[in-house]
Structure formats: C-alpha cells, structure tokens
C-alpha cells in the first residue's frame, strides 16, 4: 500500500528529525536525491543547460543545493531568483561556490527557451493559493520550451493536500518528492501535473502516522482477490445478485452481470426486466424476471445501472436496501437514493455508492476541486462507502479511510464502463471483502482491464468484461497464457 501523507503529517514527521540532525542535514538528503534523479535524466551532466526556478522558501533551497551538485558535475546551471533578498541563504552560497550564476526573472526568457532541464523550486508544501507573478509567467515560458520539467517536492501551483490547481501550475514531466507521497500528486487536477513520480527517502518513514489515505499496488489488490481452493463450491465464493438494465435497454444488465461473472465466477443471480437479454448473453447466470426476493439467496446486491427511476424501480431499490446484505448502489438507483437518502442512512449492513460527478451533485453539493474531501464528507454524512468516479477515482468510507485509484486510462470514458465497475465491485462485496476495500480493489482491477483493453485500440465496455480475466491474472503477477505449475 502506498501511503499518502498530508502536509501537516509531513511537517510533524520532519520536526523531530530537524531537532535531532545538524542544521541543513535534511535538506541535504533531499537535494542529494533530487540531483541524482536529474543526473539520471540528463544522461550527461557536462555541458547540459539547467535552469532553476527558485522561490523564497525551503523548496528553493532544495533546488539551489541540487543545482550546486549539478554545476560541480559540469552542468551550466542558472538560478532565476524570484525573490533575491529571501532566497535560501545556505543554498545560494553553495550554488555560487559551485560556479552557478543567477538571473532576474525579467531576464530569464532566453535561458528557459534553450534549457535541457528546468527545476521547479518555486514553492513546495508551503504553497498556498494560485501562483503569483512572476512565477506564473516563468512556468508558462518554461512549459513552452524544450526542457525536461522537474518539479521539486510538488509541482508549484498544485495544492499538495487536495490536488487543487487554481490558475497556472508547473506541468512536470517528473516530480521528485521527499519523505512521503502527498495526496495532491495523485488526485484531482494535480495528478495531471505530476508526471513520473520519484520518492526520495529522507528518513521520515518511522515518524509518519499510519496513512488514512492510500493507493493500492497490484500486490495489494492481488492479496484481496483470493483464488478458489479445493474446498470451494459454486456457492462458497459469495453469490452476487444483480438488478440492472431494463427490457428496452438490457445492456447495463448484460455488462454488469458479465463483469460479476468474470470477477468471481462462482454464481451470479440476476433479477429484473432485462432477463431475456441477460439470459442469452450469459447462460452461466441464474436469471429471473421477477423481483430481487425471487432470485434466491445472495451475499451482496448490485442495484441501479439502467434500471430506470419509475415507481417499480423505486420499490425494487427499497426492497434491496431493506435487506441486511451489502449493497452497491449505482446510476439510476443513485438518482432515486438522492431523493430519499434515509434509505441508506438507516441501513446497518455496508452500502457502496458509486457516483460520477453529476450523480454526486444530486446529493446536495458539487464535487469541487477537493475530490477526496468531497467523497469523505458524503461518506460520513450517509454512513456509506463512496466511490467517486473520474480520472482518478477515489473511495472513502464513513470513518475517513480513503483510497486513490492509480490505474486506468482515459479510454474508459465511454458508455457502460461504469456498469462493469459495479459488477466487479458487487462480486468482491459478495466474496466478503470489507466494503471500502471491495470498492478500491474493484477500481484497481477495472482500471487494469481498461489498460489491457486499450492496448488494442479504442475500447468498448464489453471489451473490459472480456479483458477482466487477463487483467486479474496480471494483477496477480501471472503472465497471460502461462500455464500454472501442474506439480509433479
Ligand atoms: N523543513 C526542511 O528542512 C525541509 C524542507 N524541504 C523543502 O522545503 C519545502 C518547504 O519549505 P517552506 O516551508 O519554506 O515552504 P515552500 O518553500 O514550499 O514555500 C514557501 C515560500 O513560497 C512562497 N509562496 C507560497 N505560496 C505561493 C504562491 N502561490 N505563489 C508564489 N509563492 C508562494 C511563500 O511566500 C514562501 O516564501 C518542501 O516542500 C521541501 O521542498 C526539504 O528540503 C526537506 C527538508
Ligand atoms: N478521463 C477518464 N480517465 C480515466 N477513467 C475515466 C475517465 N472518465 C471516466 N472514467 C471511468 O470510466 C467509468 C465511467 O463510468 P460512468 O460514468 O458510470 O459510465 P456509464 O454510466 O456509462 O457506465 C468510471 O469507472 C470512471 O472512473
Ligand atoms: K516545486
């Protein structure tokens, strides 16, 4: 699990180290890691042109110390001092000693136009609000040039906690962050400015609290996707019930049922008016055109995709939510639930809501720039797990534990892919995973299936279903087509 740590947590973890270590030692660790990454990126330091954008705080100090190291390796390094009077004194002294030269912001344009690498030390975790002049103009000029764009700790202009970006921000090709990954590097708009992320160990780990926000790795997801064993039968892996689609629009039922089958193919029951379509697409499913109560026993329900919002649909939703089983609520069922949130508030069993931004807004407030904060607030308000879909899907539970999904592709922005996600998550809920983890693992696997499908070109939601077995095998670290060891 990759822990994501807030600015307050990082500052608190730094405090005992700053007190215990000689002055400047922590910054030296950061700058050494930063210079190492830059040298690797440049390939050859000698003769390369490096420009540092240097703000008035510790972030500028990191850039100056790293710039000094690059200069001593033969790079031609120029520091643009945004606030010369307040530039980090020790960093500036080291930089000058190493032969670095300085420029005023007004004179920096030509150097930025021909730089090989621009190091963004304007502002790090001490930043607030949108980038001020002249920082914003320098960032834009650098972005228009040919240089590798390396952000120090956090791309300037990105809120390290939320990923919010107001105005200009440094569009990094690489971000070298120190001590811990900050949420804003992987969520919201900030995710789009981070580029490739490098984490430099400066010795904070033992001082950081357990992270309340995390990102799953393939190994974390695999550990939560147990394989069937010799004692399993078709019931024991968890039976999922699906209410989705309608007679006129069976597609959502077909996609959702197929995704559930392909995730944990023990048994999937379908109940709803798309019964004919589902039956012909998935002969493996047990299908009824009756109500959920007619479907037989299940361990979790998925309700909502394409089911409509009329009185019948509303009564089916109420029936499912009145059970003591885990329920995943999506799409049309979210629209109905937003009108009657007490249906979820009164539940004792886990509920997972999977809104996209417009569905989220129906519950009373817009998502806004702080996606994690918004998901946490709705989860706490309703007492349910909220999986907020989007480019970086986030999952929050009512206690405040959250996940930021790290997989996926913009090709997923096509009709029906949400129905597939619901089927995956429903299957994992039925298998007994805690609701927040089921949602997070589902988003991870869904994203991997999207990446696998997109490798062959533009994807359709049905392609995701077909790619699920391959995606799950890859998450487990197995090569597609590889035969398992068959023993002696
Ligand atoms: N405390 C330490 O010893 C360490 C600090 N480190 C570095 O220091 C950084 C934190 O240093 P600071 O606390 O000094 O803060 P920063 O250097 O991140 O930012 C503070 C400075 O940025 C300016 N600023 C804030 N918002 C701005 C905006 N929107 N536009 C333009 N300027 C803005 C402020 O006026 C202030 O001068 C970390 O991100 C990291 O890069 C690392 O070297 C690790 C060790
Ligand atoms: N730009 C994007 N990048 C990555 N994933 C995306 C993007 N846009 C949407 N997605 C994903 O695609 C899926 C779309 O779901 P949804 O909006 O419910 O569609 P539908 O209702 O048509 O099934 C979600 O899993 C979402 O996270
Ligand atoms: K920065």
Task: Using brief descriptors, characterize the structure shown.
18 strands; binds adenosine-5'-diphosphate; 15% strand; Rossmann fold; 18 helices; eleven-stranded mixed sheet; 488 residues; alpha/beta; binds potassium ion; UDP-N-acetylmuramoyl-L-alanine:D-glutamate ligase; binds ligand NAX; single chain; disordered C terminus
SSE arrangement:
Layout lengths: L1 E3 L2 H14 L4 H18 L6 E6 L3 H15 L3 E6 L7 H9 L3 E3 L5 H5 L3 E5 L13 H10 L3 E5 L21 E5 L12 H4 L1 E5 L12 E3 L2 H6 L15 E5 L7 H13 L3 E5 L3 H7 L4 E3 L11 E4 L7 H11 L5 E3 L1 H9 L2 H4 L5 E3 L3 H5 L9 H12 L2 E4 L5 E3 L5 E3 L12 H14 L4 H20 L6 H15 L13
Parallel strand pairs: 2-3, 2-5, 3-4, 5-6, 6-7, 7-8, 9-18, 10-11, 10-13, 11-12, 13-14, 14-15, 15-16
Antiparallel strand pairs: 1-9, 16-17, 17-18
The protein binds ligand NAX, adenosine-5'-diphosphate and potassium ion (K).
Description:
This protein has 488 residues and is α/β, with parallel strands linked by helices. It contains 18 helices and 18 strands. It has helices at 7-20, 25-42, 58-72, 89-97, 109-113, 135-144, 191-194, 218-223, 251-263, 275-281, 311-321, 331-339, 342-345, 357-361, 371-382, 417-430, 435-454, 461-475, and strands spanning 2-4, 49-54, 76-81, 101-103, 117-121, 148-152, 174-178, 196-200, 213-215, 239-243, 267-271, 286-288, 300-303, 327-329, 351-353, 385-388, 394-396, 402-404. A hairpin with a 5-residue loop joins strand 17 and strand 18 (402-404). The longest helix is centred in the C-terminal third of the chain and has 20 residues, at 435-454. It is elongated, with a radius of gyration of 26 Å. Mean pLDDT is 96; it is low at 481-488. Bound molecules: ligand NAX, adenosine-5'-diphosphate and potassium ion. Potassium ion binds next to strand 5 and strand 6.
């Amino acid at each position: 699990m990759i822990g994501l740590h807030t600015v307050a947590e990082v500052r608190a973890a730094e405090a005992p180290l700053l007190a215990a270590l000689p002055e400047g030692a922590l910054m030296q660790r950061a700058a050494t890691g930063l210079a190492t990454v830059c040298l690797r990126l440049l390939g050859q330091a000698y003769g390369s042109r490096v420009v540092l954008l240097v703000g008035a705080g510790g972030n500028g100090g990191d850039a100056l110390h790293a710039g000094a190291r690059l200069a001593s390796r033969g790079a031609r390094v120029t520091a643009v001092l945004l606030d010369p009077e307040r530039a980090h004194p020790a960093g500036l002294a080291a930089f000058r000693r190493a032969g670095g030269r300085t420029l005023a912001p007004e004179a920096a344009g030509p150097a930025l136009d021909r730089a090989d690498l621009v190091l963004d030390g304007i502002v790090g975790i001490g930043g607030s609000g949108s980038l001020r002049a002249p920082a914003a103009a320098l960032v834009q000029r650098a972005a228009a040039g040919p240089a590798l764009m390396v952000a120090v700790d956090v791309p300037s202009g990105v809120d390290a906690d939320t990923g919010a970006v107001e105005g200009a921000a440094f569009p990094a090709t690489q971000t070298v962050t120190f001590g811990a990954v900050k949420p804003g590097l992987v969520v919201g708009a900030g995710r789009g400015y981070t580029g490739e992320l490098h984490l430099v160990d400066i010795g904070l780990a033992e001082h950081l609290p357990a992270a309340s926000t995390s990102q799953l790795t393939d190994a974390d997801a695999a550990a939560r996707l147990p394989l069937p064993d010799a004692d399993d039968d078709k019931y024991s892996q968890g039976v999922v019930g699906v209410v989705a689609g309608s007679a006129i629009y069976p597609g959502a039922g077909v996609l959702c049922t197929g995704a559930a089958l392909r995730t944990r193919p023990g048994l999937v029951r379908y109940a709803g008016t798309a019964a004919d379509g589902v039956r012909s697409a998935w002969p493996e499913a047990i299908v009824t055109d009756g109500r959920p109560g007619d479907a037989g026993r299940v361990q979790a329900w998925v309700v909502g995709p394409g089911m409509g919002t009329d009185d019948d649909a509303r009564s089916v939703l109420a029936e499912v939510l009145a059970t003591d089983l885990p329920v995943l609520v999506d799409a049309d069922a979210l629209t109905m639930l937003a009108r009657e949130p007490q249906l979820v508030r009164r539940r004792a069993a886990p509920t997972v809501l999977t809104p996209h931004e417009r569905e989220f807004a129906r519950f009373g407030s817009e998502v806004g720039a702080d996606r994690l904060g918004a998901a946490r607030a709705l989860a706490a308000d309703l007492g349910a797990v909220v999986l907020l879909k989007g480019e970086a899907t986030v999952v929050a539970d009512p206690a405040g534990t959250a996940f930021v999904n790290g997989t996926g592709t913009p090709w997923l922005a096509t009709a029906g892919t949400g129905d597939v996600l619901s089927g995956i998550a429903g299957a994992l809920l039925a298998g007994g995973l805690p609701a927040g983890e089921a949602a997070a693992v589902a988003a991870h696997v869904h994203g991997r299936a999207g990446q696998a499908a997109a490798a062959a070109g533009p994807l359709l939601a049905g392609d995701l279903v077909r790619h699920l077995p391959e995606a799950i095998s890859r998450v487990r670290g197995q090569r597609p087509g590889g035969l398992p060891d068959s023993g002696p």
